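Entry 14. Ran structure prediction on the chain below.
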Amino acid sequence: MTAAACPACAAAPLAEGVATGPALQFSIPSVHCAACIGKIERGLADVRGVADVRVNLSLKRLSVTGTPAPDRVLSALNDLGYEAFPLDSEALGRAQDKQGRALLTRMAVAGFAMMNVMLLSVAVWSGATDATRDLFHLISAAIALPVVAYSAQPFFENAWSALRVRRLNMDVPISLAIILAAGMSLFETLNSGPHAYFDAALSLTFFLLIGRYMDHQTRSAARSAAKELTALETHSANLEEGGSLRSVPVSQVAVGDVLQVPTGARVPVDGILLSASALMDRAFLTGESAAVDATEGEALQAGEINLAAPLRLRATAVGEDTTLRRMAALVETAENGRNAYTALADRAAQVYAPAVHLLALFAFLGWVAWDGDVRNALNVAIAVLIITCPCALGLAVPAVSTAAISRLFSAGFLVKHATALERLAEADHVVFDKTGTLTRPAVLDTSGLSADERAVGFALAQASSHPLSRALAAALAGERPATLTDITEQSGHGVEAHCDGVPVRLGRGSWIGADFAGLGLKLGDSAPRAIEATETLREGVKEAVADLDLPAEIVTGDAPGPAKRIAEALNLPVLSEARPETKLARLDELKAAGRHVLMVGDGLNDTAALASAHASIAPAAALEASRSASDIVLLKDTFADLPMVLRVARATQHLSKQNFAIATLYNVIAVPIALAGFATPLAAALAMSLSSITVLANSQRMRSVR
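Output, C-alpha cells:
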C-alpha cells in the first residue's frame, strides 16, 4: 500500500541517525515527518528478529538491525502503508563526511592558535624589546609553525597538485603567502628582528579555512546517483536447477538460466517471460503510473516489480548488460558532464592567480633594485602576497551560497550541489516530468460505497500489490476490514475471495462482469460498483507554472491520454511515452539549441535527465537515486514557491558578482600601499581580514530576498 498524506508532515528534515553495525537498508520515498518515523519504528518493533529500527528522514532511508528476513520487513512496511525498496548496504557505503570534519578541526585549531599568538603579540606591541621580545616571538613560533603545518595542509596539497602539472590555482598564492609569512617570521625571530608575523600567517589560514569549509558544506550533500541505482538492484535470485529452487547471488546468474521471481520482488536480470502472463510495475523505467500486463515471450528488464503471481523468466542479459546498469552508466556520464561546469570563482582564479605572483615578483625585484635590501624587499613581497591573497575572493561565492542555501532551506528547498544556484540562475527553459512530479498518485472516490462494500473493498485492496489497490487501501485507511477466505489474485485482472461464503471481487470492470473499463468492486450477485480513479495536480503547480516566466514543457513516460489531460490543464506542450533515453535525447536537443534546461522530475526514469540537465529539482517523495541526481530537493508538498527558487538563484549570482567587485576595490586601494612599502605583513593580514568581513556582511543581504 502507498501512504496517505500524513497530517503531521513538516518541511524540514530531522537529524535522525542511522543505526550502526550490520543493517538492512531500505529506501522509503513516502516517509515525510516525525509522525511517520514514529509509526514505522513502533510498527517494526514487534517484527521477529528486529533488534533496532532507525529512520533517517533527510535520506528517506530505513535501517533495521538484527536478524529479520527482508521480506518480513517489507511486508510489515506494506501493512503500515509505506512502499519500500531494498538497498544494498555495501553498494551504498558509509555516508561519513570525513573531509568536512577534517576542515572543521583544522579551522578550530587555527582559530585557537591565532588568538593565543595575538595575545602574545600584545606584549610586543606594548614595547617589549630585546630578550623579552625574542622570547615572545619564540613562543609564538612554537605555537604557529606546527599549527600552520597542520591546518594549512588542504591549501598545500592542492597547490602542489597544480604545480606538479605546471599549472596555477588559487591555492598556489595562498600557500606561498602562508609559507613566506611563517618562514620570514622564523628568520626574524632567530636573528632578533623587531617584527614577526606569525599571527598574520595564522589569521590568513583561519579565514581561508572558513571559506573552504563553507564551500565544502555546499558540496557535502551531493552523492553519486549511479551508486544509488546500483543499490536498488536485487542481489540474489531464485535459480531453477534440477526441478528445485536455489538462491544464488545475481553475479552467478548466466544468460539462459531460468529464474523464478516471487510476488512483490524486483526482476534481478533482463530476461524473457516464460509464464503465461504477469503484471509488472515499470515506473522506474517508463514513469507510467499504471501497471503493465506482460504475456509469455515478452521482454522484462532488471528492476521491474512483479505485482501478481510468481513468474518465471529466462535470463538474456546479466551484469553490466542489464537495463538498470545501462541507466546507471547514463547517469554517471551525465554527472561527469555537469561536473565540467566552471564555477564563477574558478573562472576568476584562472586570471587572478598568475597576476598575484607577477605582482609579488615585481615588488621584490623593484625594491631590491631600489635600495638593495633583500630582507626589506622580501617583507614587501610577502605583504603584497598577503594583501592580494584571495581570501575575499574565496569567500565571495561560498558566503552568498551558504546564505542562499539557508534561505531556501527555510522555504522548504534543500540545495545539494555546489554550483547549483549558479546554474539555476542561467536556466531559460523548464522540462517537467508528470507522474509523481506535477501530479499526485491516484485518488479514489469511495463516497458512494456502502459500509459493507467499504469493508470488503479495504480487505481485498490490502491483499493486492496493484498500484490502484494500494491507492484504494490508502483511501479507506481507518475502516475495519472484512474477514476474507480463499484469497487469490488473477494476474492482470484483480483479486477475488470469499466473505461469509459469498464470492467478492476487486479488479477490472470487464473481469467482474461490468460494462465499464476502470476499477470496480462486486459482492456476490449484486451489481458491480465503479470506483473512480483520478489523477490530480500537486498543490501549487498551476501557480508555479504561471509565475515561472520561462518556456516550459512536459516530457513523461505515461500514456498519451493522461499526459494530454494534465498538459491541457497547465497549457503546456507534452511528449508522452518517453523512455529514459528519450528524455535524455530531448534535453540534448534543447542544449543544441543553446538552451539551459531546468529539469524537474522524481522517478528513476528521470534520473539520467536530472543528472544531465543544466540544473535539476526533485520532490522529496522521489526515490533516493532521483534525489541524489538532482541539485535541489523540494521538501514541501507544494510547488508554489518554485519561482522563488529561481529568484534566489539570480540574486545569488548578483551578490556574488558584487562580492567580487568589493574584493577588487579592496585590492585597488590596498595593493599600491603594499607596493610602496607602507604595509607590514601584519597590517596586510588585518586589511585582508577586513575585506573578508565586508564580503560576509554583504552576503547576508541574501536573507532579504523575497
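The longest strand covers residues 50-56. Will compare against last week's run tomorrow.
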